[in-house]
UniProtKB/TrEMBL annotation:
Swiss-Prot/TrEMBL GO biological process terms: protein folding in endoplasmic reticulum
GO cellular component labels: endoplasmic reticulum
Subcellular location: Endoplasmic reticulum
Presence of keyword Coiled coil: no
Full protein name: J domain-containing protein
Residue stretches of biased makeup (Basic and acidic residues): 424-433
TPR repeat segments: 72-105, 313-346
Coarse class of the protein's main subcellular location: endoplasmic reticulum
Signal peptide: 1-32
Amino acid sequence: MESGRRKGLSGVLSSLSLLCVILDLQLDGVLGATHVEIEQHLEMGRKLLAAGQLAEALSHYHSAVEGDSKNYLTYYKRAAVFLAMGKSKSALPDLTRAIQLKPDFLALQRSPDQDEAQNQLMRANELEELQEEAHAAHHRGDYSTTITVLDRVVELSPWDPESRELRAECYIRLGDPRKAIQDLTPTTRLRNDNRGAFLKLSTLHYDLGEHQESLGHVRECLKLDQDDKECLSRYKQVKKLSKQLDSAEEHIQEERYQDAIDKYESVMRTEPNVLYYTNKAKERICFCLVKNKMPAMAIDICSEAHQRDPRNINILRDRAEAFILNQDYEKAVEDYQEAREFDMENNEIREGLERAQKLLKLSRKRDYYKILGVNRSANKQEIIKAYRKLAQQWHPDNFREESEKKEAEKRFIDIASAKEVLTDPEMRQKFDSGEDPLDPESQQGGGQGGQGWPFHFNPFESGGNYHFKFHH
């Protein structure tokens, strides 16, 4: 018997829910009180309700009810807002009072001409059944079914924050934070004080690595209550991390790469539990080490970053550049090829691959860095020092046997060519880009090929008397 009464009450409530919405559109204040202030509240409430600003609309209807407790329409309109917000328990007393003040209030339901009203009342009953089904599915942990049911609920009742919040929770449990954010965002406007939604949105954005968005939401939470402990704690954490990240990127823009490395190491200490920030820090440290021309360390860090994020083309690009600095061109080509598989349209990756391939081809002919035994990051002083040492070692006058002298001549020419190219900024830049400025195949009129002496001068053509003086 009790169950039957509850079902009967539920049915009446569902019917009244839709009835309120229909009447709200049809009556529009016609039967309202004559007092100007009450009418203003009703009109503002109607406009805000139409705009979906339910919390603000409710505030005006509260004022209207307080100003005229004998007007059934003020109670009815406030009930309409309660129902739109999914607060059926709050709507019931207002609907009861409206019926008491106007006993023929339900005449609309009995009118045979109101087909649309009857149809809406049936949809209201469907809504109640769907809500019960959604909560049952959620209770047993069937989140996919819950979402499917709530899709229809939200379609029927788009202003119900509870349904959106429940669906957002299901998305979070299923690992889809983006859709959870889409559901939670409107709920911040559908409730007067929804600090919980702002805090959850801040957390979701934070975990996705969107620290600026996270900071914005937690600030909105503190606007509602500056002493909220959870929001204040979240704000301090996000603010600290956000400042470190922004500072690190500023250092990179200013080419202060070691300072940027220090900041990203601080980021990993500040937030060791969210994978995104550790991955991001490793990626950017890899980049900075390459810029600082520290290939060995860069390869180690870039390789770790690559393991963490295998499809990240920026990491593959930076490790390729580290391999180039380390004169390991085959591996550089491999990394650029892998990056190109992930993004065929990226011009930077395409150009990097072409350059690495040129350098690999060039290294199989002659590599001026290898000839002098210096790193690609060597400065002019280091290059000249290496040249002098090798030139003395391979000077043809040091050898007596004809075969040894011929080998020494070849080596001596290569050493001098290497020094000439690597101490000239323009020629070195061309070589670093994959061209040999002394090879006519890649540079027309640029020299005598693989065995040529720079600027067409060969000291060995004068008869074999070699007189060089080296200054240390």
